Automatic annotation (TrEMBL):
Protein's name in the database: Histidine--tRNA ligase
Keywords, ordered alphabetically: Aminoacyl-tRNA synthetase, ATP-binding, Cytoplasm, Ligase, Nucleotide-binding, Protein biosynthesis
One Pfam family hit: HGTP_anticodon
Superkingdom of the source species: Bacteria
EC nos: 6.1.1.21
A molecular function (GO) term: transferase activity
Catalytic reaction annotation: tRNA(His) + L-histidine + ATP = L-histidyl-tRNA(His) + AMP + diphosphate + H(+)
GO biological process, any: histidyl-tRNA aminoacylation
Organism annotation: Liquorilactobacillus nagelii
Enzyme class: ligase
Length: 428
């Protein structure tokens, strides 16, 4: 039997994993500048954590969640997105306490799971990097979160992007818009897709997010929520736009954007790329928004929140398509060459000492002849070779060669064991 990875998943093998590590490293550096700290939540949660927050009519809940009953008959879900689990942890661990600074800023990285048709950049196990900020309802925080997302993409080397912006308003705005949308869509009810007919009854706003082509034609002339905003919601949205302008961040208003999860309100945004990876078609690589009320849904106090998530697989597709040149390899500092079986213990001690001195080191384990070992050192682009043979063992020395210059020096083994960094200074 031939075993294969499950459909919609990928193996991240050596050579590729280093690219993931670099993306994660850059993300951590950006988040640290903005004073965000890491949180790690379980990969699976109670089903209700996502069904209650994401919305019973969302595609995630109705079609895409991996859920099952465990041996204790508990309804469990593999997390389809990061926010709900972070909110659950925020509430359960009382991270809203008076001693905790507001806004409470956190970020996460890890795998998510959705059962959908696998395609390029969209897998059943995919990976997200996301941030969440709790406790402040200021438009300035909305803009800071957006600016951080733009900063992150820029630091990753993704330059040609556009920011799409919309608002879903406050609760009174949503109620007024809900009725206007129902009035508009009801005459088209029979023409809507089966999913949208159900959503019209339960959550008409979700019809705007339909992928059905005829649904999209119908909603093209639907009322826009910006025409139903309360004065308070309008002020919030106006302030977000002005602050973005103040920071020199260009944006477009997309009044049809609603996002795929029910918990959003007020500011929502998507950052899109027209990379060759997507055939030049504008495709979302990072998205998020404000979700005031979500903390209360999971049993917490009335605490506002905002955040974003981005898919690592899509980032990699863009970087590969743009022939990103800044991938960091795994450099080898020293390759230790042993000549003769009697050098086995000495070379093992040397690579260990060099590693403990803070350098990367490797040696031969296949009992190859010196020529084969030197070829390996060259193929691995080692900065130095350190050669030990019978004569070197007798004199307690080794030959250290700087590969870039070809300069070779005889050094004492005792000096290597004592301070290899000082030994390397001879080549400066």
């Amino acid at each position: 039997m031939k075993y294969q990875r499950p459909k919609g998943t990928n193996d991240i093998i050596p050579g590729e994993a280093e690219k993931w590590q670099q993306i994660e490293k850059i993300a951590r550096q950006v988040f640290q500048k903005y004073r965000y700290q890491e949180i790690r939540t379980p990969i699976f949660e109670s089903f209700e954590v996502f069904s209650r927050t994401s919305g019973e009519t969302s595609d995630i809940v109705t079609k895409e969640m991996y859920d099952f009953y465990d041996k204790g008959n508990r309804h469990i879900t593999l997390r389809p997105e990061g926010t709900a689990g972070v909110v659950r942890a925020y509430v359960e661990n009382k991270l809203y306490g008076p001693e905790i600074q507001r806004p409470f800023k956190t970020y996460y990285m890890g795998p998510m799971f959705r059962y959908e048709r696998p395609q390029s950049g969209r897998l059943r196990q995919f990976h997200q990097i996301g941030v969440e900020a709790f406790g402040v309802d200021s438009p300035a925080l909305d803009v800071e979160v957006i600016a951080m997302a733009m900063n992150l993409l820029s630091d990753l080397g993704i330059q040609h992007v556009k920011l799409a912006l919309n608002t879903l308003g406050d609760q009174p705005s949503r109620q007024a818009y809900h009725q206007a949308l129902v009035d508009y869509l009801t005459p088209y009810q029979a023409e809507l897709s089966e999913d949208s007919q159900i959503r019209l009854q339960k959550n008409p706003l979700r019809v705007l997010d339909s992928k059905d082509q005829h649904d999209q034609e119908i909603v093209a002339n639907a009322p826009q929520i910006v025409d139903y905003l309360t004065p308070e919601a309008q002020m919030h949205f106006d302030a977000v736009q002005q602050l973005l302008k103040d920071l020199g961040i260009d944006f477009e208003i997309d009044s049809t954007m609603v996002r795929g999860l029910d918990y959003y309100n007020h500011t929502i945004f998507e950052i899109m790329s027209d990379s060759k990876a997507f055939g030049g078609k504008w495709t979302t690589v990072c998205a998020g928004g404000r979700y005031n009320g979500l903390v209360e849904q999971l049993g917490g106090p009335e605490v506002p929140g905002i955040g974003f998530g981005l898919g690592v697989e899509r980032l990699l597709l863009i970087l590969e398509a743009e022939k990103y040149q800044a991938w960091q390899n795994n450099p080898l500092d020293v390759y230790v060459v042993g000549i003769g079986n009697e050098t086995n213990a000495a070379t093992l001690k040397l690579v260990q000492a060099i590693r403990q001195a803070g350098f990367s080191a490797d040696r031969d384990y296949l009992q190859r002849k010196p020529k084969g070992q030197f070829k390996t050192a060259s193929r691995l682009a080692a900065k130095y070779t350190l050669t030990v043979g019978e004569s070197e063992l007798s004199s307690q020395t080794a030959k250290l060669k700087q590969m870039s210059s070809g300069v070779e020096k005889t050094v004492k083994l005792a000096a290597i064991f004592a301070d290899f960094a000082a030994v390397c200074q001879q080549f400066k």
